[in-house]
Specification:
By secondary structure, the protein is of the alpha/beta class. The chain has 2 domains: 30-70, no CATH class; 76-284, von Willebrand factor, type A domain (Rossmann fold, 3-Layer(aba) Sandwich), CATH 3.40.50. Helices cover 27% and strands 25% of the residues. The chain has 6 helices and 12 strands. Helix 2 packs antiparallel against helix 3 (138-146). The longest helix has 24 residues, at 237-260.
Length: 287
């Protein structure tokens, strides 16, 4: 039975797939699809089902002409999941639960489109227990994703994303990068350069409690889960406003960074909205 937190959405890719396997996306491989590619002689492509009588009568060399079509193809789709300790942050819920919800929804949506799905989880390094190669077997992926919420360790960073590129397909694919993106911008830029062959969809997980629901006055403790260190801060309105301003500035900076790579970010707070994800693709990923 599919868990209730899985919310499928519709997606498309803004390029023609190079895969030889039949699917639901426009491709570049010759086959029995519906996208007209051109004509050639029956000698070069011996398929009488595609004979073009009109072009045959017009051919000055009196060769039988057949129509060529591109067949529809699959595309590889990945959930690249930040499982570092910052995902332990709890506002209304743990961020790790939201990572699980988004990744599982991606996997289930991919199965509905007859594409192949791969999973890559990382913290300070890529985690072998949370890596699955491309497959049509979505149930195995959902089982692995369901174990995300068992992760409770602190003190683990997110530099493992820089080890993820070799796990991606050589063919262009769709990569849902799910993270809070609190790592340094240099790390994000380096990773995006490494993923340049693919279309990255940055899914930014922020909770309003991180910056909007801070104490207005009094002592508060801020914990950095990736280092395990905490810091006591005396809050007042001016300090609180600085936190809010810093987050808003970072949001704008992240948008600019990802747009420079033609990868508009999608921000999520609270819960995953499948309809909003569908609208994202309608807005940004139309072929």
């Amino acid at each position: 039975m599919i868990p209730d937190y899985i919310k499928p959405f519709a997606y498309q890719i803004p390029w023609k797939s190079s895969s030889v396997h039949s699917g639901d996306h426009l491709g570049i491989q010759r086959g029995l699809g519906f996208e007209y590619k051109g004509n050639t002689s029956l000698v070069d492509y011996p398929d009488l089902r595609r004979m073009d009588l009109r072009q045959t009568l017009r051919d000055p060399y009196e060769q039988v002409q057949v129509r060529l079509f591109n067949h529809d193809s699959i595309t590889p789709v990945y959930a690249l999941c930040d499982l570092s300790s910052s995902m332990q942050y709890r506002g209304a819920r743990r961020k790790m639960e939201l990572v699980q919800e988004v990744a599982a929804s991606v996997a289930y949506s991919v199965s509905g489109e007859n594409d192949v799905f791969g999973l890559i989880g990382y913290d300070q390094h890529v985690l072998d227990d949370f890596v699955l190669p491309l497959s049509y077997q979505v149930h195995e992926a959902l089982e692995r994703i369901s174990a995300f919420t068992d992760i409770e360790t602190l003190g683990r960073g997110s530099n493992g994303v820089l080890e993820a590129a070799p796990y991606l397909s050589q063919n262009r694919g769709l990569v849902f990068w799910i993270s809070d993106f609190h790592q340094p911008f240099d790390t994000i830029i380096q990773a995006m350069n490494m993923f340049s062959q693919h279309q990255v969809v940055p899914i930014v997980l922020w909770e309003e409690e991180e910056y909007r629901r801070l104490p207005r006055f009094g002592l508060g403790t801020m914990l950095d889960p990736e280092t395990g260190h905490d810091r006591t801060i005396f809050f007042r309105d001016s300090i609180r406003e600085k936190f809010i301003a810093a987050f808003e500035q970072r949001r704008l900076a992240l948008e600019d960074l990802f747009l420079a790579f033609d990868s508009p970010p999608h921000f999520i707070s609270g819960s995953f909205d499948a309809e909003a994800m569908t609208h994202y693709f309608e807005k940004y990923m139309t072929a």
